[in-house]
Amino acid sequence: MFSLNKKAPNSLPLIGVGLRHTHFEDAINSPANIDFMEVHAENFFAKGGASHAVLTDISQHYKISLHATSLGLGSALPAPQKQLEQLSNLVARYQPILVSDHACFSWAESQGLDVHAGDLLPVPFNDESLNIMVSNVKRAQAQLGRQILVENLSAYIELPGSTYSEAEFLVKLCQQSGCKLLVDLNNLIVNAINQPLVTLMAKQSDSSANNNVLALAKQWLENIPSSLVGEIHLAGCTQVSAEQLMIDDHSQPVSDDVWSLYHFALEKFGPVATLIEWDEDLPSWPTLIAEADKARVIAKHVFTNNNLTTDEESTSDKIIEEGANSEY
Amino acid sequence: MNIKQQQSQMLSAIFSLESLQENSAHKPSDFSATGLSIYQHSLLANASRALAITFATVHSFIGETGFSQLVKKYLQKHLKTQFDWGELGDNFPHFIHQQSLPNSEVLAAIATLDFACHHTERAENVEKDLTTLSLLNDVDAYQLKLNFAAGFKVIKLDYPADLIITDIHLKQLASDTEVINKVKHAMKNLPFNQVSLESVSGRLCMSPRTLRRHLQTLGVSFKTLLENERRNIATKRLDKKDISLDQLAELLGYNSTSSFSRAFKRWYT
Fold first, then answer.
1. Residue A266, SS3?
2. Cβ A117–B4 below 8 Å, yes or no?
3. What would the pLDDT profile of B23-75 be if each residue is shown by its tens digit?
4. Which of B4, B5, B6, B7 is the mutation pick for testing A, counting most A CBs within 10 A?
């Protein structure tokens, strides 16, 4: 078992932000104290042109993580070889520190055609589905010549036929394919909030108030061995009323529930690379960086044994304040 | 039903895009319909966004609502067989041609050119080897051939779509410079300590978010424009030598001399 050396200051996790088009200029012109930048692989599938010029520039300032959204690792219909080749060209070109995709399906046959959903669609958690995903992950890892991370979804439909819990399924996936997990904490919270609606059990779980959400998410994490976690995603999304499904739109600052779950996850998993994801209604660059700084403050708190010293507290306040000020 | 069939069924249900309208009236217990509609909305939004990038001129011509309706019909008819959003839309020009839209033939021609330009931009970069031009000195021109870049394409259109697109871009450009001028003007007319994205956008009768986005698409930030204004004033006053640095910092709206001196160093070193 690996043990946490909570005192060593160099055991802090790498902390990064998801880089979107709007912030390209800022990322180059106002370099921030950020350990890595994560980009969506598909945004750089073009062979040439402006997108590569930008990413080449960025990769000279920051470490890169490639987050793919299109492989559909749970698809019974295998992805075309060309798609894997495009991803592996990108990996060879930018030498990312991490490569990831999702535990979902995207490819399926419809009207006699191989159709790509352009979305992350849920799979049931059973052996048939597991075998498909294991073989797709192995194929991707063989093509890329490296281990990949697989991310848990936020799902809005529960497909019939599950015999495992999601956490059990993902652990088996890692054991059988040699991949690791990218644990998205907001997806856990969103699924926990949506669960009564998605599983059609609204009546039975009427009593379950929101404070159970965090407990459910923690329980999920309890089932994951720390050696299997390769990255953590943090995000926020639009709040909804109790009757509505919450959609993981990555349009808000990280929520209090997610911060509190992050604290718990770091204590359990150790200093795992952490990413702030923000995709819709993008904030200013300083506001985004301030979110990463908040994660760093929590990580320092967890890995330096004691509570925040007054000094650190004032630093974190200052960071947040400066972030707010530069939001013109 | 095996997984393969289950996945085909779910994907076909999403691409039918059919329950989209009835959804507001769904039965409260029917949450899988709600779930399905979330995926449908997401498909439509992502496809509209992707096609609006590829077919930028068509999009600016018919506007967001019309464009999104067109995309919905297109997706129902032509399933998405590409994994890359950037490749979506090879049948879009032909599809537009068949629609009963005003000027659908012209729009289709513009769409063809949009698609070709998009592909050319994404094609492999090629280094021009100008030294090969010297071959013309020694070799008969008819024995030489041109190597075209990967994105090179010849298309024939029945309408002067290139002129139409240039015209639109010029008009766009004129209105863009106008926005920047208005922002600069508003900055000049406010005391610096009151200049903010909110106060300036208020003067331009738009929301702060809209103004920020607008400037972002022009490749400038509010911060940069403000910084330039401050720098202009600083340079003028320092030339006149009628002001102390503390007074200048205050005039420019810096709340501390240290942040002013940081800016000062940035400008003059």
1. helix
2. no
3. 444 444 445 788 899 999 999 999 999 999 999 999 988 889 999 999 999 99
4. B7
Q: What is the ipTM of this complex?
A: 0.86
Distance from the B48 Cα atom to the nearest Cα atom in chain A, whole angstroms: 12
Confidence check: pLDDT of B153 > 50: yes
Q: For the segment A43-56, what is each residue's pLDDT rounded down to a tens digit?
A: 999 988 888 989 99
Domains assigned to chain B: 1-125+143-159 (no CATH), 179-269 (1.10.10.60)
CATH number at residue A174: 3.20.20.150
Cβ-contact A228, A147 below 8 angstroms? no
The whole-model pTM stands at: 0.78
Rounded CA-CA distance A316/A318 in Å is 5
With beta carbons less than 8 A apart as the criterion, state whether B89 and B112 touch: no
The CA distance from B17 to A247, in Å, is 18
- Of chain A, the end-to-end C-alpha distance in Å amounts to 48
* pLDDT at position B2 over 60: yes
Using alpha carbons, select from B98, B46, B93 the residue that is nearest to residue B72. B46
Asked whether the beta carbons of residue B83 and residue A197 sit closer than 8 angstroms, the reply is no
- Which residues of chain A are within 8 Å of residue B226 when distances are taken between CB atoms? 328
Q: Is A308 among the domain residues? A: yes
Residue B249 has pLDDT above 80, yes or no: yes
Domain that holds residue A246: 9-325
Asked if B43's CB is within 8 angstroms of A200's CB, the reply is no
Domain assignment of residue A1, yes or no: no
Nearest CA to B37 out of B108, A289, B45 is that of B45
The verdict on residue A4 lying in a domain is: no
pLDDT digits (tens, 9 = 90+) for A176-186: 999 999 999 99
Interface residue of A21, A102, A156, A318 to substitute, partner B, most B CBs within 10 Å: A156
State how far residue B256 is from chain A, nearest Cα, in angstroms. Answer: 13
Q: Hunting for tokens 């005039």 — which residue is that?
A: B251
